[in-house]
Amino acid sequence: MESGAQRNAVIDTKLDIVPIDLKKVGLQEGFLKDEVAVVTGSASNVGLGYARAIAAAGGKVVITDINEAAGKEAERVINAENGADCALFVQCDVTSESDVKNLAKKAFGKFGKVDILINNAMNKALNGAIWSSPVSDLEKSFAIAARGTFLTIKEFLPNMLERGHGTILYSSTQFHYAPPMIGGGIYCAGKAAATSITMSLANEVNGTGVHVFCLAPAGVAREGKPTPAPAPVIPLPEPAEKPKRMGMPGFEGAVPPEACAVAMLYCLANAEKLHGSGILVSEALTAMDYPYPVPETVNRSGGARKLSQMELTLALCNMGPGFTG
């Protein structure tokens, strides 16, 4: 196993990453020792952050992504940061039942078990407005998010139930309506369906030792690298003044993938408390006293608040014009 200093060194890679420092956020190195995680969509952005953070916390991680080149590089980087055989890449299209079965076969073959399943795979290009998007985009959104979540649960949950131990986290979204963005309905339709599947599963596994919940990120991206813009829809009047850049609480702009990743670690450490609910990334970061670069924009009045099952099921339907909290 690499030392903390080695792990925090900058690895020479084409991947868009920065070091993850657990000590800075009060997390103990090694608290996921002997745990094995599968993270879908983990060759880039927030999924890669999740995979790297799990390895930094002492866990083993199976990287899964449709992008073979990026996935292999993610495996190389994580092993360079944390020691050989810490990470395994398995190319996988989560919409394919045979691919997911192969993923499970290789994960169990390499590590013997899976303790943590993080469903994160999605295509952010599927973010057009409802009335201008082809039906094929909606089908892809449901296939990646909802079908992918369903298939991975079917493969990895049974072993968790047999052992009475496991965590299943769905990486949801807060993006149904985010001014000045037009679009996102197609993207969020699949996310909403997967969130509902996850909440139903939480009820089904109550009292089994398997904890199921959602983490809701929002704007997660490297500064200066925005997510894909939605397709043009209808002409809009020019605003009276240029809109201010949207910044996430505590940050100048988007939440860096590594920050969202340490919020995910906080959730894993509190999985039993979060079972059957969810939490916003900003509330998880605040609860762990994250050193925000722009702390004056953070609302610290209420502390971390779990989202109820009803809120999680309906939240993606309610974030329309006028939504403020």
Could you characterize the architecture of this molecule?
The protein has 325 residues and is an alpha/beta fold. It has one domain: NAD(P)-binding Rossmann-like Domain (Rossmann fold, 3-Layer(aba) Sandwich), CATH 3.40.50.720. It has ten helices and seven strands. The protein has helices at residues 4-7, 45-56, 68-82, 97-111, 135-163, 185-204, 257-269, 271-274, 281-287, 309-318, and strands at residues 36-40, 60-65, 87-91, 116-119, 166-171, 210-216, 278-280. The chain has a seven-stranded parallel beta sheet, with helices on both faces. Strand 1, helix 2 and strand 2 form a beta-alpha-beta unit. The N and C termini lie far apart (43 Å).
What's the CATH architecture? 3-Layer(aba) Sandwich
| Termini Cα gap | 43 Å
Low-confidence stretches: 177-181, 227-237, 316-325
Determine Rg (CA atoms, Å).
19 Å
Q: How many β-strand runs?
A: 7
Widest β-sheet, arrangement of strands: 3-2-1-4-5-6-7
What is the CATH class name? Alpha Beta
The CATH fourth-level homologous superfamily: NAD(P)-binding Rossmann-like Domain
Number of domains: 1
CATH topology name: Rossmann fold
| Overall average residue pLDDT | 84
Number of helices: 10
> How much beta, percentage-wise?
5-15%
The largest pleated sheet is described as: 7 strands, parallel
